Write the structure tokens for this entry.
Amino acid sequence: MQTKKIIFCKRCLYTNLHPFSITFNEEGICSGCLIHEEKNNLDWKLRLQKLKKIVKSYKSKSRKNYDCIVPVTGANDSHFIVHIVKNILGMNPLLVNYNKYFNTPIGISNLANLRLKFDLDILFKNINMNSVKKITKFTLLEHQNIYWPILAGHTVFPLEVAVNYKIPLIIWGAHQGLEQVGMFSHEHEVEMSRRYRENHDLFGMEAQDLITIDSDLTEEDISQYVYPDDKSIDEIGIRGIYLGNYIRWDPTSQHQLMIKKYGYKSCQLPRTFDTYDHVDCYNYMNLHDILKLSKRGYSKITDHVCREIRHKRLTREQGIELVNFYEHKKPENLDKFCDWLEIDANSLALVLNKSKNKNYWIQEDINKFKFTGPSAHFKNTKNNEINNNIKDILDKEFIKNRNINLNKKNEEYILFGKGVGELYE
Ligand SMILES: [Zn+2]
């Protein structure tokens, strides 16, 4: 049982147990909800002007080099970021993508769509499969984490390209710490930093930390995940800015716009109602999400619900019903993951047991755990169906225009793909 008394935000569903620092005002509203209020009070026209001024000095005068780098994936906010950078800011970006290897056909197709519809150059980084598997196996067994290489790669590759191509500006979407827990105000205009990446994106684990006496990882395996040194960064004057500080960030309506304008592809995922985020990955909303629940006591459904409550598309009560519905849904495709990593199902089951944080789980038997995390305090609304009022809201806001189903025999992780003819229409 957790020793710390649990405090819920009165507006959203985050608690004082959130792994990022979260604070509450006297009325019991969390820092994330309070910073969210800035979205309704800031002069966004003025902030966009400010952004335009910042990026102006980075436009390549000779037109011989790219103006900036935009890290992209086949999901999340990539379409919207590229749309803003190219069409609103008038920049010529170089897109960069770290290959996560758990690609769905939708992710591959969205990436191709970015390349073709926006007519831009893109660089892919494909790390050799042996190292990726070795690192994933190590972080899974030792830290119950399968996403470390993906997050490390996604955050280091843009820096590498910035250094090698001498492009000083990297443009990201929203800052997660600001969006979720209000770690900063929009007006702080916080920028990318090595420290935030290590503490939050990488769960406090830098590449060098993976080389321990227990791991058979070598310098060679981790070399592609090492952040460039300060000297190289300073020499070029590399900075990474977040569009969310200058544009009123609302991923749901942004995705709706991207579907309408560019045919962004979306689908239902097993453990959330959000049909836009993470549709490029077979494992994020499956194994990765169940490990998050094990270790942190909450999963992505809570993040999605909190965001929707703040944007006033869902009420707190509807949010509770959705968390109750999705949080303990079984992850899918675990056998495909075991095949890929060359481990057996029993080893994975052991890892899943080991990952259960004693603050949120009571072990009742060898393979039986009782959940005591935040949602165990909610009113029990458990139903086999989502009630129709909520369903109507979700159907309207979260468009599903494709399907993926890895349980089908012929579907596998797509390692590489052109994005043409890969999608089951
Ligand atoms: Zn809140």
The chain is about 45% helix and 5% strand. Residues 109 and 308 are 27 Å apart (CA to CA). The beta strands are 68-71, 93-98, 122-125, 169-172, 239-242, 361-365, 368-371. Residues 9, 11-12, 14, 29-30, 32-33 surround zinc ion (CB under 6 Å).
